[in-house]
Amino acid sequence: MRPVGSKYLLEEPLGRGATGTVWRARQRETAGAEAAVAGQPGETVAIKVLKEELAQDADIVMRFLRERSVLLRLTHPNIVRTRDLVVEGDLLALVMDLVDGPDLHKYIRQNGPFSPVAAALLTAQIADALAASHADGVVHRDLKPANVLLDESNGQMKPMLTDFGIARLADSPGLTRTHEFVGTPAYVAPESAEGRPQTSAVDIYGAGILLYELVTGRPPFAGGTALEVLHRHLSEEPQRPPAVPEALWIVIEHCLRKEPDERPSAESLARGLRVVAAGIRVHSSPDEVEAALGVAALLAPDPSPAPVPGAPVAPGSAATAQAAAYDPDAYDPNAMTSVLPPVGGADATTVLPATAAAGAPGGAPDPTSVMPPVQQPDAPHPWQSQMRAARDRNEQTQMHYLDPAEDPLRRRPQRPAPQMPPPPQQPPRQQPPRQQHHQAPPPQQYQPQQQYQPQPPPQQYAPQPPQHYQPQQYQQPPQQPQYRQPQPPPQQQQPQPPPVRQQPQQPPREPRPPREPRRRSANPVRIPGLGCLKGCLVLILLLFVGGWLVWELTPLQSWIGTGKGWWDQVWSWGSDAVDFVTSIGDSAGGSSGSGS
Ligand SMILES: Nc1ncnc2c1ncn2[C@@H]1O[C@H](COP(=O)(O)OP(=O)(O)OP(=O)(O)O)[C@@H](O)[C@H]1O
């Protein structure tokens, strides 16, 4: 079991999605005032741990924190409640209510399609959730069966919409750099596929696709590559399958209009679906049947769709005025966030930039009252302070980079360098700045096309020559080639952004002089022991054995005509030698004696 912050323990994974893994988890202690739901120790919750690559991206972390108040305040019987948001080191997690039941995608795979009545009633509840969030200015943008959980806890199936706010992360380059397709092609509205202005109508389109899938078991535009599916959304008119009653088809067809301005509001959709459900039952009254067939009258185009913050809005559309209130030129997520009422108590208020509180002191959100936050030019961004505060609050298992030179597992014994003339001076190496995720870059401008158009990968992830990623700690003396980096050729040194965090400057180490080349041995053949007494004895032994072999195995004996064995011959040679030495001694003694 893994702790998340100080308050939660991850127990087992429930599922994995494009943006992270959802875990069943347990509350260790009551959460602080910054959480929307304090919870009780021992309580079971669901925690979505965002993918590491997202959590390591300062831009996404900031985005996530900005979404905090959006996520925490969304409460509706058909919306999975977000209880808390955890930032711990490189971990980013959403704490949610645990829903006891499968998601709609799994349910359809296991049980097949719903009856038209059940599908209409289920989608009506999802439309209720959408109506509430749209009224709050929040567009889901990733509506699909996998994001609808079926709460079966009370003996009946209640659809619960989840993953609000996660789609906003998709706007960040953090996802597009992974070359994954952000969003699910089968559920993407034509305007999103084209990068056209988006409003809450994208959720209505998603609801239409979902309703179609609930009744038929598959979405209308599926199969083939993602591009083919997107193309079908743009160009193909869906055909009514035999399983879909006519009244229900009228609703689906209105939701799937290519032009977003022709789609109904979520509220109208919910009402229309209930009317249809009443008129397509087995025992419907003639009036109910007639009302169902006349449902088109209830599905008038939404006069004021909620704009997606940051998305360009079609000129002249009803959403233009609202969107203009957010920012006429570019999307400033802070402006959006600053209008949101604080959630969760006193601490939550500090989440918001100070200027935001003045602009929107709680209460119902009103997009027209958005006050852009006033920022001091050199002051840290309010969300940077918030990010730091969140990290500090949750910091438990911080990971630290360990200099390999200081790593006791990697460090080599250092011998004193021999006294050598200094090597020729190397030019100082250019140290590339290392992107630190603890400090965030300024918020990026929202690009609506970013989600579906290939983007050049952002600089911090761009493939670089290896020397651009060599941190200073990897500088090692020349005799440790495994840590050496190749000298960058001058033309490869590209201009780099200034480093966001200064590393403490380490005094430059003296490069070690290259080792003196090893002298060749004077004994290239390397006879063992040669040059010492042992060597002499070994040599004598070798000569003795060699002589024996030559004596015994060659016709040398017969040539000399001794007929003796090796030992006898050696003995007689030895005796001869002794006699010779003795005779010399005697003759020397005799001559000296005669002389005297
Ligand atoms: N609050 C929750 N309670 C219980 N189970 C949950 C909860 N949230 C998600 N799950 C389960 O976890 C699984 C993964 O959820 P996730 O939202 O990551 O999946 P996804 O919607 O397919 O992914 P994505 O939308 O990121 O592509 C789902 O199958 C869902 O059943």
From TrEMBL:
Superkingdom of the organism of origin: Bacteria
Q: Where is the composition biased (Pro residues)?
A: 415-431, 454-468, 486-508
Q: Which residues cross the membrane?
A: none
- Where the record annotates domain Protein kinase, the positions are 8-276
Q: Where is the composition biased (Low complexity)?
A: 356-368, 469-485
Enzyme superclass (EC)? transferase
The protein, known as: non-specific serine/threonine protein kinase
